[in-house]
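Teaching note: in complex prediction, the entire set of molecules is handled at once rather than each chain in isolation. The prompt given to students was simply: 'Predict the structure of this complex.' The entities are:
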Amino acid sequence: MPTHPEQDPTRLLPLTPLSLAILLALAEGDLHGYAIIKEVERQTAGQLTVGTGSLYAALQRMRDEALIAESPDEPPAGADARRRYYRLTPYGREVARQETQRMARVLAVAREKRIAPEPAPELRPADR
Amino acid sequence: MNGTPRAVRMAQALLHPLLRLHPRDFRERNAAEMRAVLQDALTEAQREQGAGGLLKRAAREALDLAATAARLHWTGADYRARARGRKTPHPSTPRGPMKDETRGQRLPRTAGIACAVAATGAGMLYMTMAGAPATYIAMNGLALVMGLGMIGLARTAGRDRHLPGGIVLVLGAALLATALFGLRVDGAARWVRLGGTSVQVSLIVLPAMLVSFARHRDRHSTLGIAVAALALAVQPDRAMAGILASAVAVLAVTTRDPRAHLALAGAAAGFAATLLRPDTLPAVPYVDQVLYTSFDAGLVAGLAVTGGALLLIVPALLGFRYDPDHREVHAVFGTVWLGAVAAAALGNYPTPLVGYGGSAILGYALSLSLIPPKRHPAAAGARAGDGASAKAGSMPAGAAELATALIGRRGPRARAWTALADVTGEAGGAMARRSSRAGAVALAFLLIAGAAQQGDAQPGWQPAAGHTQIPLWPNGPPDPRPGVGAEAVHYAVDPETRQRKLVGGRPYQYVENVTRPTITVYPPTTGNTGAAVIVYPGGGFNVLAIDIEGTEACDWLTSNGITCVLLKYRVPCQHEGDYRECPSAHQDAQRAMSIVRSRAGEWHIDPNRIGVMGFSAGAHMAIMSSTRFDRLYAAVDEADRVSSRPDFAIVLYPGRVAYRRTNFVPNPDIRVTERTPPTFLVHTWDDPMNLVENSLIYATALRRAGVPAELHVYAQGGHAFGLRRTELSATAWPELAEAWLKAIGVVGP
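The expected output is the structure of the full assembly:
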């Protein structure tokens, strides 16, 4: 897995909730600023609402940390020229993966201590 | 842009100046894109949730933009370097937070923006928790957005400007115009009507005038300050006059400019003039006295208000510490806002940035925008050597001059000041600076405390001629609380229109800050029936509605041959527990009954026909009197051996029996037994303050305990109508009460 030169992907962990949410929002494709706000709201079921100021402060920081980059592709025809599209870098993808693994380990410990519920058993058609 | 709705364009116009607050490199990189995102967000909010949604979204974005800007300035532009390699800082970024020139330059102003946002936010939090009307909260949010927009515009318009002297003079004249032609409330003309709300002009312009005057003094600005002092004396506004005098005094101490001394003479004279006239403006709920009452809404609300108020002087402290070239400006800024907080702590004055209005928010933003950026370190360094030593010597000398100016001749006190100044001057730079700074702050406090002291001369509430108040507690009340101000009587005022509130076409009064409770006996005006009633006025345990729910009840009782005893109990009280109980009020009620019963012979009263009658919070006291007969305080004298149980109770729109938020579980402190006296209850179905359930639940408890009772519930009438007759049938209740008193044998047929 290619990563940012000389950078250990676990170095930035743990990520802030907003950073992780932005990385996840970009996982399926490039998005512009307002689309990121909408996607973050959708994937957290409205729990995380992002203001414009916070978003751009985070985007700038994440760009400097090479987690994301501006999309080199031409914007779609008819799009607002002021809009830039952002994409996940391979390094950013790896950092997001490491962060979710870290969270999975936390969750496993919480289950062991009976703080988090066990995952619901999968329902097979016969059980219904 | 043509397709954009007008409301969205207006919101954008308010938000875009905020983008100017961000650090330049960030702004250049992102501002255009952020404008596009804001437009999307606002358009969608408007489309999906209408105007309310748009307003909410715009407010959220404004706070977020301001907070982000402050954060970016605070963390500095070197976050890039720290992100790349945390171990090795960027070579161009020296360590030590304030040494970095780009960062230190606007530090006080940036911190001020953060403080203004945080303090206003804290105020809005408090108002939400205290249940203030939504318009108050929205008004503060709007003022903050406007204020931040002003700062942004000031930065766009040009860097580092103070107001020209001519403008200071014009503003002073504007204050004078307000004093002469402004909105007059209870004898004070401080406001002008603007777009449906009233604006306190002095709070907006005076801080900016003072900061400008601290930066640059010429003939016009000196005259402008003197005119402002005159205006405040005419209005009159003792708190603002005190703030003006304190700030100019601090300036006179920290500079040796004769113009500052001239202005001080004017300011001191204006302040002295305000001391000659009483300042008796009523406290406005959710605005005045909030430093104290906010704690009633919960610890968080209280801390939000106090913390928010203290945040206001943080920029001055930072500026004083890190910007030695403009010490006097920061000292004046700090004095103005510390003075405003002190005025709020000592009198009926709005706590800045908290409470309804927003004048203070605008004033804070305006004065903040005039704070100078730090001089370039190279330029500052060139004169650092001689500058520091010269200043160290000059400040105590200024103190001596101030003393001379204040006392007018070189009396013994002036000599003491001079001696002190000499000693500290010789003691050297840092010491001298510190002591004169402390002296300036102490002086400011003295001036404002003097104003409050003067306020204590108010006589408080007095009964009509021919009646005397009898103190309840010969040796002072049990567990007395230090008063939050002088006892005073005011008319109830609508905070939005600043007009007197009316019930039945007439205004009504309330008493505040009662620390020495009394009873006043009103003998019957027609044939004495031998019955007596102790009246408990309402007012939420914060104030006493002394006429509409006090003396007017006595007029009715005495005209029916009943002796009336009006109880002036202690308010405001420390609310306790889930039902916001007020132990001091219940103590006063018990004590009053024991005194009246023990002196029944003297007052021609039958000791077995003494009832209680209470309105709202007082109705709750009547319920407590009817259900708690164990003594709530250590007995004081013989009177406390006599029973405090009333023989009957008239209970009008009571509260604190049960709350909707706790699913109407009855207050466990109310223990109805068969010893509870016969009770007459009145409530309205549409009472917005104390829900009708209070009376229904209490009546049910009376029924279960076998206590005779009569319950009247009216469809309309609201709350706190007292005995004033209107077209609503609820206001005819006194006739029913007269019939009931006959029916239970209290008065003859």
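Point out the following to students. Residues 32 and 120 of chain A are 36 Å apart (CA to CA). Strands of chain A lie at 31-32, 68-70, 85-88.
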